[in-house]
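subagent[fold] <- orchestrator: predict structure for attached chain, return tokens only, no commentary.
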Amino acid sequence: MPVPLRADFDAQTTRAAAKRSKDGPQARRLLALAAIYDGATRSEAAKIGGVTLQIVRDWVMKFNAHGPAGLIDRKAPGQPPRLTDKHRKVLAAIIESGPMPAIHGVVRWRIIDLCQWLYEEFRVVVAKQTLSRELRAMGYRKLSARPRHHAQAAGAIEDFKKAFPPAWPEVAEGQGVDPADLEIWFADEARIGQKNKITRRWARRGTRPCAPHDQRTASTYIFGAICPKEGKGAALVLPACNTEAMNLHLAEIATEVAPGKHAILLLDQAGWHLSSRLIVPPNITLMPLPAKCPELNPQENVWQFMRDNWLSNRVFKSYADILDHCCYAWNKLVDQPWRIISIGMRDWAHRF
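subagent[fold] -> orchestrator:
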């Protein structure tokens, strides 16, 4: 016996659905079913659809179950995925924990290592391309690791971030200014020389691009400081990195602090930053960062940006050439205050 069509549709509503449809096969199937509603035989409906009786019967079953939407072609399900939710959960855990060199024989996971690990643990054979797609779907990417000092104290960064904002009122009270008149500055030094850095560049896949690399050793230092909230900076290019140079830099920073305001200058614990021979201007208070925690200083990111965009992949002809390029790079940065704000702003330091 032929399967009856659902009673909540008729020939008129079915043809109207076919007219509205933007899918050609769906419209053809709806017209074939509309003919059945009009009294046509299943054989006549099969001729309208250009198919066999069995396929018409399948259309009727899908239409009865899901309405017009059931007549849209769906993507074939294909093979079931090799990895289950359990596999993905365990895979995420081992990626987060990292490999044990003594056990796994590697110091970082490669896709081929993870494929081998899945086979050894679950006897699941996965191709590298398949596992790569799975890892990307899980939110993982192959990223450059951020360096962390091996002797960094546990919790030092988090503790400093918590303690820094409450220290504002104490500094303001000691200097006799309103907390709203405090400026947060970050300072650091960078060595720029003829033995320069080579940065990443766009090139065709499978090739290895080359870049000029000098082996001479002439160099100089940029003493730089930024105030991210105001988008301003102060720097000097000096031949040595010592207390005398730091005194000159502090004097330069003091000229950039707004009148009537006071600067909290955060810097690392280098010897020339903590020397008893430092001459600290009255509108600056030095606040050392925790030892071995350069991640807290956005001035490090400023150096990275300047090297990547203006100072790397160059051959400096002479010491004077190094000075000219350092001054050009810093002045270009200062002329883009939005760049300083974007690179230097930190939630923990600016109460956001």
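orchestrator: received. Logging for downstream: The mean pLDDT is 91. The CA atoms of residues 62 and 312 lie 64 Å apart.
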